Amino acid sequence: MTTSTETRAAELTKPYTGRPAELIQALHRVQTELGYIPEAAQAAVAETVGVPLSQVRGVVTFYHFFRTTPVGRHTLRLCLGTACHVRGAELVLKAIREELGVGLGGTSADGVFTVEGVRCLGACGLAPVLMIDEEVYGKLDPKKTKRILRGIRENAK
């Protein structure tokens, strides 16, 4: 029995039928449409492209930009670079965990936030820095971080 996810993934990857060399492009297309690549979609991609499911899973888990779980409406990118680390990024991460109930790589239970760690956001003078979607927040402390997250969550309702 095929699911709607399998059917949609098969439709999206039809241009790559029998083209194993284009596996990554096919996966990108599926993720762009679905927001992530669930197991059902991985199976459909494997069949359409003509590679073993184990190869698809290997590619999806090897490359950090592929996701196997849904992402939140807002993406938090916490800088973990040297300047941010020295100026309290760990305290900001602790505040994020307390406020959202998830740490790096997680998505909040309400689906509003996904938390990622990055090596540098290029705003060292504002350390510690958090980027939420396309907006940069700097000179953070736990209180300020929680206030920002609560404000975004309120507006997401």
How does this model look, in words?
By secondary structure, this protein is α+β, with helices and mostly antiparallel strands. The protein has two domains: 4-62, no CATH class; 74-156, Glutaredoxin (3-Layer(aba) Sandwich). The chain has seven helices and four strands. The protein has helices at 4-13, 23-34, 39-49, 53-62, 82-86, 89-100, 142-156; strands at residues 74-79, 113-118, 130-132, 135-137. Strands 2-1-3-4 form a four-stranded mixed β-sheet, covered by helices on one side. The chain is elongated and about 50 Å long. The protein starts with a helix and ends with a helix. The mean pLDDT is 94.
Which keywords apply here?
single chain; 157 residues; alpha+beta; Glutaredoxin; 4-stranded mixed β-sheet; 7 helices; 4 strands; elongated
Please give the count of helices. Answer: 7
Assign the CATH architecture of the largest domain.
3-Layer(aba) Sandwich
CATH class call of the largest domain? Alpha Beta
Distance between the termini: 36 Å
CATH topology of the largest domain: Glutaredoxin
Structural class comes to alpha+beta
- On the 0 to 100 scale, the average pLDDT is 94
Radius of gyration, in angstroms, nearest whole number: 19 Å
* Share of β-strand residues: 5-15%
What is the CATH superfamily label of the largest domain? Glutaredoxin
Shape: elongated
Major β-sheet annotation = 4 strands, mixed
Domains (count):
2
Helical residue percent band: 40-55%
SSE pattern, N- to C-terminal: HHHHEHHEEEH
How many β-strand stretches?
4
Strand order of the largest sheet: 2-1-3-4
Low-confidence stretches: none
